[in-house]
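Researcher: Last one for today. Full complex below.
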Amino acid sequence: MVKHPKQAFGISEDGTVLRLVRLIRDRDQVYLHDVDRIDLERSLYNLQEELPVAAETKAWEDEGGSDQEIKLDEFENVYSPDIKTSPWETMFNSYYLRQGVIALNISEEHLIKAQEQIEGARKVKQFVKSQLSPLEFKAKEWQTCQVKINQRPNLWLHKGPNQLFNILAEYARKHKHQFYYQLADSNDIALTDYFRVNCLEKDKRTLLVYLGVEYRRAFMFDKGEWITTLPLQITQSAPTPEIVYSKLALALDSAQLSDPEQLVICGDLVNAELLEYLSAQYPPNTVSILNFAHIVVNSQRSDLYENIYLAQFALPLSLAYKALFPEDLRYTHSNFLPHKTLESQKTFKVAWHGLIVLGIIFLLTLFGTVSMLKVSSRLKSAKTNKRLLDHTLAQRRIEAAEIQEIRTKLEQQQKVFEVMRGILDGKNPWTEVLDILNRKVASLPITWLTNLKKSGERLVITGITTNRQHILSIANALPNSGIIKVTEAEIKDRRVWDFEIQSDLPKKDWIAEIENDLRKLMDMKQQYGEDPSQPGSPEAPKGKAAAETGPQKASTAQVKNLAPYRGLSPIMDKYMPQVPDNITKKGGDDLKEYYAFIASINRGNMWEYRDLGVKFLNRHSSGTLADLVRWYMAYRLYIDKEFSLVHVYNEPLISSSTELYPWALLLAARVDYARNSTGYKNRYDNLKNDYSRHIISGQIKEDLRVIEGAAK
Amino acid sequence: MSNALRNSVILTILLILMLSGFLLFHRRYNKQAGILEAQNKKTEATIADLDEQISKRDSLMAAYEIMLEMQSQQSKILVGSDSANQSYQYLLRVLKWMGKYIPFNFALTDASKKQAAYNEYVISGRTHYSDLIKLTKHLEYERAVITIEDFSIGSDTVAASDTVSFSMVFRTHFQEGGPELESITNKDFNSPWLGYQLFNIRIYDSIPEREIDPRLVNISEATLIGLGDGKAFLRDKQGIIHILSPGSKVAYGYLREVDMPNGRAVFKLNLHGLEETHFLQVRNLP
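Model: Here's the assembly. Have a good evening.
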């Protein structure tokens, strides 16, 4: 039911007459816009067997003729009888029924009024069952309502079809309209409700008389209440005023009621003649026509302003007016619309299961809202926190950039030390050479040098002495020396000996001096620089104590970005050089130092492994372990992208014929390839040709596969 | 289907959609919040790390200043750049530090290539051996990383000469970021031992010209005129008589002894690099 309808159509049938009114409500004001009526040949309930009428269509055949002659179909009258529309369709077509709610009346013939007072659902049900067949009861094509007459509730039962409703439903189906049925009410209830609520003077005994085409009733009101209904036995279709008056008097007598203080008439039979006659029969100002003072006529039709004319529409007006005020409790709570229709119009009806779901939805919404608020608050807090932290971080980074720059310079300085170490290794022995020779020869009388020079990597000295023993003394003072020649000669009749000696150049330990400077720098870095265990360091030390004592194998470094190596992955573990078994079995301090160095290589702390490596090489300049340290140092520098420093440790392995030569060559080839130097091709060719059965052949093949793949 | 049932179905679908939506958004928000919180933790850790570093800023700056100061005091420094001009000027500065003058020829060799981080030069000349030792030590021991790649010393053929001929090939190494060669200061180190002239010819055929104290008598030009009481009496070519006792200096040597029985004086003279014994017999005076 629409609680506040703006527009209502009241439709009533009374015998062969079908009436329609259109009321529009604007707040508390009601406007009458249209009234209409049609006269049917027969009453709707007598047309039952003919309804609904389905228009038959005749199959149409194209008689278009031939190609030469076009033959037009002619209009045939055969279609006209079948396609005629029913009179109510014509009336309904004139109004937009779907724009308002519809109120209609029911047939009084299908209304059963209980004689005794019946209250309570069970008693009502029993009464209904007693009045209906089981099939009718089960079909639920019945409706009940309690009508208060003379302060007593009366149960009214409506059963059977409602033809007015049916033709409306059929019309709606046919035209694909969606109508809203607000009310289906009894004529008695509709008329008495309207009159009681809007027109009745409570201090007067009033008789409301409706004189319709078939429906003719009188309703007695006393003290504002509907006390009884008087059936009028007027059988004539057009009775004279005298008949009406006499029947009315008869009805009052039969009911043992005195004349009313006020008589209000309405219906089809109301006219000026009847009004005049009845007024003459009763005291003055007793008889009047039902007026519609609460309804403002909003039409250009003049007849609508006359109560005599409107009196015939009293029934549809009462229905439409009641439909416009469903919330008004003064009206009788009655509605005889089919149960299914009422249900189907309750779009938002919720059953028990729906209520459960609604409850769950409510709980879910509640829980969800609380939960989402919490998460949202958490997210908002995190975002706010992030903004603050990002801002703080940006500020700190700006401040830290300067520190980082200084730290970078300290690192660069250390790299310079590494480079210097490589440059000065084995260089600048001349002061040492001259000092050794000066001091030695000074102790050998009558001996002098005639020439000193470098031949290749060897020192060559020539000189003269008077004592051959001196030659040996000079040779012994030089490292890895050898006498090339000694020849006899004479100077001023004295026998002298010309000699030539070759030796290695003595080593000057420049590294120690650089180490001293480096140590100072590293002390400074440790005091002010990064802590290796802090985030951002290459790798935190892992189990240092164990690593320094236990056997360690260098593992393949994890490199995320292969771009600096031009796609070459680190050398696989199985191809890495290993400590020979005889050295492992032998053990010793140097092996422990080596393991500590390898552990530092695995940790990847540049400062640590360089320090340990250099210390190891200072203590053990030659041997297999020293070569391994050199190679691993060079390889780690390669992994750390310090390509310029790799050769410092790798070059001695390439220039000598150690067992690590193939690994050194492979590393040199990788460095050349990383630096895009063409030398890598020759190195890989050498490796491929000379070491095809060597342990590293697999790595060589893998490297060549990557290199050739990149070349393609 | 009744409206009530239809509405229940719609409500159920709505419930499912709400539940799905709620779970979806809750999960998404939760995930976003989790990610943000994890990021915040990392950021906090980074900030704490940076704070710690920043707290050391002043001390690090001081350390950096010390490093710069130390750099100039390092035993070895790789200079930032090098050119022939710079190296030549550096050689002159080294000579100034030595307080010596050594004439030498200077040239840039072909070995200096653009790819290498050094320039190679050759110097040659003739100088005192002791000066050459000093120059060598300065080049090798001064702060600038200079390596002597080749070195030759030849003795002078002149008797009793303390000069030598030499040639030296050296490299001046450099690396970007280092100090300029001009800014490097001299370093304190021990002077080389100069106690022996290694290339000095000890025996020679002809007597080299030497500065002799004119007060000393040259026995080759003097006459032993008498012996007596452990003394020898020599008259030089100018007629001046010199009275010598054993150990008295003469040109190129000294008087060893007075041999009275044989009437002669024994001299030890070093004329050709070796100490030789010379005799002067008493000549009767006319």
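The domain at 84-183 of chain B is CATH 3.30.70.60 (Alpha-Beta Plaits). Chain B has a mean pLDDT of 85.
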